[in-house]
Amino acid sequence: MHHFHYSNGQLYCEGVAVAAIAAKVGTPFYLYSHATLQHHFQVFDRAFGETPHLVCFAVKSNSNLAILRIFINQGGGVDIVSGGELFRALRAGVAPGKVVYSGVGKRPDEIRYALEQGILMFNIESPQELQVLNQAAGQMGRRARIALRVNPDVDPQTHPYISTGLKQNKFGIDIDRSVAEYLIAKQLPHLEIVGVACHIGSQLTQLSPFIETLGRLKELIARLRREDIQIRYLDIGGGLGIQYNEETPPHPVEYGRSIIQELQGLDCTLILEPGRVLVGNAGILVTKVLFTKQTEAKYFIIADAAMNDLARPSLYGSYHGIQPVVEKDRREVTASLVGPICESGDFLAKDRLMPAFDPGELVAVMSAGAYGFTMSSNYNSRPRVPEILVHKNEFYVIRQRETYEDLIRGEEIPICLTGG
Ligand SMILES: Cc1ncc(COP(=O)(O)O)c(C=O)c1O
Ligand SMILES: N[C@@H](CCCC[NH3+])C(=O)O
């Protein structure tokens, strides 16, 4: 559903003109539609109907407290990968019993924090982690609920940097070895085996890799049950793709239907960890053109947002739609939309046909709600941009623009350098 739309040649987010927000908050900024976020959650959640399930939003895709709160208010849980994400999610109001914790490198302090809070489940990614968690739980007088995150060796057919379920990836425990690890875990006194977890990659545009994975997970659960290891939760991760350009990913309803069908009679509570599909198309990045520049080789449109604000194009060569905030009659040019950062890899769109934007014009970088702000940095000492949420006919600053003072917070010049 699209709550970003044009009316009288102006881009709107729900009932608010994007240009009016820009006039108030300056550029660049991230802009999200509350209605879209809520709608995406509901559609995804309802796609699993009466099947016992929990939608654990992948915090890494967008960790703004207000956005987490929207999903939590709908009954959602969270998938976290760090102590920092746990802290955020708790601040946003999540019940610890709805938190699953993935990641290949959990630190001892992060493990203790999650144990203290009593999260739903640790998704264990190595034999050593199993031992460390058991020990930590023992020391704290707790019992940790666990799943093993298995690596099924399935090709998700996505960008190599974001595929996670192949043998050569660092993630999970080889599915063929996982039964042996489950048997070890069963002997560890401070662990309670409750689940099986898996996540094969991100931005998947086909159902077949999911289905192939489910087949392997079902087999594994059957084998575990023969070993008298009871599995209550099956966590199948996230990864459902969205349309950035010409992709045709399955609709969440189709995704849900095929999964339910595949898992009939399994008698597990399903856990899902969607990120991108909930937030990706619910947000845009709004930037302003500073200059245009014709060189001998190319035409550049230089904007005030850069790779530090949105890393995806530079990092993965990803496509994001580029649209005017205020439409006007004009030609199209083959251009690169670039930022002020001192790297030639700093582009938001490269050698593409786009409107011939003029200096001073606002540009919307589409589908920027997932892995946009969360992957942003202060490179080139650029303050991170604000995040704005539109709800009905109002807009709310849900994260303020960083200041120069914010940039140096925590830094100190030691006395040995000041001669004091
Ligand atoms: C363990 C885990 N769960 C969930 C996700 C969310 O993925 P996506 O945003 O593709 O739905 C990721 C990232 O790919 C992940 O690593
Ligand atoms: N950061 C990636 C997705 C990574 C998924 C993390 N498991 C992207 O923007 O597409």
From TrEMBL:
> What Pfam families is this protein classified in?
Orn_Arg_deC_N, Orn_DAP_Arg_deC
Q: Which GO terms describe its biological process?
A: lysine biosynthetic process via diaminopimelate
- List its EC numbers: 4.1.1.20
Write out the catalysed reaction.
meso-2,6-diaminopimelate + H(+) = L-lysine + CO2
User: Domain of life, per the record?
Assistant: Bacteria
Protein's UniProt keywords contain Amino-acid biosynthesis = yes
Query: Subunit structure, briefly?
Result: Homodimer.
* Known function: Specifically catalyzes the decarboxylation of meso-diaminopimelate (meso-DAP) to L-lysine.
What this protein is called in its record is Diaminopimelate decarboxylase
Q: Which organism is it from?
A: Desulfobacca acetoxidans (strain ATCC 700848 / DSM 11109 / ASRB2)
- In the UniProt record, the gene name given for this protein reads lysA
